[in-house]
Amino acid sequence: MLNVENVDLFYGAAQALKTVSMQAEIGKVTCVMGRNGVGKTSLMRAVVGQQPLTRGSVKWDDKDISTLPVFERARLGIAFVPQGREIFPLLSVAENLETGFSCLPRGRRRVPDEVFDLFPVLKDMMRRRGGDLSGGQQQQLAIGRALVTRPKLLILDEPTEGIQPSIIQDIGRAISYLRDTGEMAIVLVEQYFEFARDLADRFTVMDRGEVVLAGEKADMNETDVRRHLTV
Description:
The chain is an alpha/beta fold. The protein is 32% helix and 26% strand.
């Protein structure tokens, strides 16, 4: 289980996160929602170790990982699919997937069949350069690269941004499948309300660096959530 407790985060003098807490459990999808610029990505970077905390803690499986570097968190099973995908455009699809090997012991360095079961297009394009793929295909590649690491915590930062509807459906089905395996916790950062609502087991809504709504899906008031998503 992921436990983020009372986290503050600053960029210089600007405070990005104010006493933020959230949880994510194995076998469940936790959706983090909010407008642009409210701190969602800063929170994800704090979880994976890309930004240092000013106060508070990040715990994974009851271990305080607040000061661990990114690569050690990856070895603990934490994988991040960043906003904008950040694939390597000049590397082939196969080479992009193989970058996920870096945090694995040598004996486990292979691409799981599950990646191609979820995203068959990747198997057909193994020799193509990542930069030649469509935006939706690049998003599938970014998720596939994360799955190569065999994560126990999968963090997806706005995976539907700029993606065509057919691939959004494929990504939704993949998230549902991964949740239903009961082998990983999933944190989904999303502004597309219907997509988030349909996948969420828990939800966290942010505004101006703070958590303003949180709870189980059954407790979600759609009107209140939507109010924090509209400009």
